Amino acid sequence: MFVFDAVSGPEGLHQVFVADADGSNIRRVSHRTWQTIHPSWSADGTRFVYEGLDRDQNIHIYVADVRTGISTRILTLVWAEETYPPYAAMPRFSPDGTQILFAKNSDYVSIDLWTIHVDTGRTTRVIEDAAFGSYAPDGRSIVYRDAGLGPDLQSGISFFGDVVPADGEQTGGHPGGFPYGVHLFDSPGAMPHWSPDGRRVLYRDPFEGGDQLPVDFRGSERWLYVFDVESGERARVGLATEASWFDDDTLIVLDYRPAE
Fold it and tell me: Which of 77, 105, 148, 181 is deepest in the core (most CB within 10 A)?
């Protein structure tokens, strides 16, 4: 089964849909009067999490039960006009389903990775200056986009966990409890995703290795790369606007063009 967001209705708002694995039986599961985006499955496939942005620019995170179709709001960030707009993006379940990992801002420029406990609503900041986090399937590490941890203070992909991957520069522990911090490589557009078996990381990058996007690129297309955690090798697999893992060896891509 797929979960995705798409424009729906006369107002052109994004809503969340699910479909069978062959793309059939599409049905809408969010029915808000505002944007609902970035859905992501729990490991057991019984729930998914998504974010909403209402008309007052407040941010909400919901957990939806696939069997009942009921969405439960677990977090709201209210925008008081005298302060900075709230930001809470790309929520993802922990492998055991008890926590949601998401990016949240603390001011106009700083973004950190936080968790929220699904049952209690307790929030914890786990990694500073970080966004777009993804748990490894065993829950022992997080891969994420950092903010200026590279040798030239460039943003890129970093890793925190109890196993250090190949080709990483160790940066020390962090308050989330993992003993190792590793900056893997610079990547200004990275949005990393662990493969289901935990052996590889998928990410998008507009300028990897100095190879800029082709002159005929379309909108938000980015180069797609797969990084092997054990060997440290990276392979470019093509261009796409969005991508995620379907299984250990297959990607789901939007507007795909193969690498030349």
Answer: 181
